[in-house]
Amino acid sequence: MKNCSPASGTCAFGNFISDDSKPDLEALGLQAPDLQIAFGQGSNTLTVAQFSARGPTNEPARVYARRLGERAIVVVETNLLGAWRAQANEFRDSHLVSLAEAVTTAIGVRGQDQFTLLSTNGHWQILPGDTPADSGMVSNLLSMLTGMPIVQFVKTSFRSPTWPVMAWPRPRSNIR
Fold it and tell me: Rounded to two decimals, what is the model's pTM?
């Protein structure tokens, strides 16, 4: 296998094993694969790669693999599959806020005070009042917000029936 990574989105197979019309998938660990990766575009599945938990005898660094719908069975290197075995949270954006400072032109703040920071031609103003803002402080605020790492994902969806209904208090501060 030349390349198999989440970043590239591709898997190239190597070391051809079998082109049998009815391979023994159970014996190769592919009847119920240890790992299956489906690549799609929109609602269409482009290809599905399946990987077993074991490979040829005396080759612990390799596993059997196949492309679903094709007869060929191949052997691939396991070290290239490590990133794909990660939990879903490993693929999530680990920052609370992701935005580009260059395209952010307005920041609404609700807290002890309510105001908007508005950028016009690279200069920040505080509204209401049309008062010039300290560009360094605005830049620091944006850097702090975009650099704030998520420490733990507590809940993915608030619509889950298994999660108790939360009576979230009204926020003391709101930045939009």
Answer: 0.52
Residue 74 CB coordination number (10 Å)? 20
Q: Three-state secondary structure along the chain? A: CCCEECCCCEECCCCEEECCCCCCHHHHCCCCCCEEEEEEECCEEEEEEEECCCCCCCCCCEEEEEECCCCCEEEEEHHHCHHHHCCHHHHCCCECCCCCCCCCCEEEEECCCEEEEEEECCEEEEECCCEECCHHHHHHHHHHHHHCECCCCCCCCCCCCCCCCCCCCCCCCEEC
Task: Identify whether the C-beta of residue 31 lies closer than 8 Å to the C-beta of residue 47.
Answer: no
Helix%, strand%, coil% for the chain, nearest 5:
15, 30, 50
Tokens (6 digits) for 117? 């920071």
| CA–CA gap between residue 57 and residue 28 (Å, rounded) | 11
pLDDT digits (tens, 9 = 90+) for 84-136: 877 777 777 788 787 765 577 888 888 888 999 998 888 999 999 889 999 89
pLDDT value of position 11? 47
What single letter denotes the amino acid at residue 170? R
User: Would you list the domain boundaries of the chain?
Assistant: 4-86, 106-175
| Separation of alpha carbons 134 and 105, rounded Å | 15
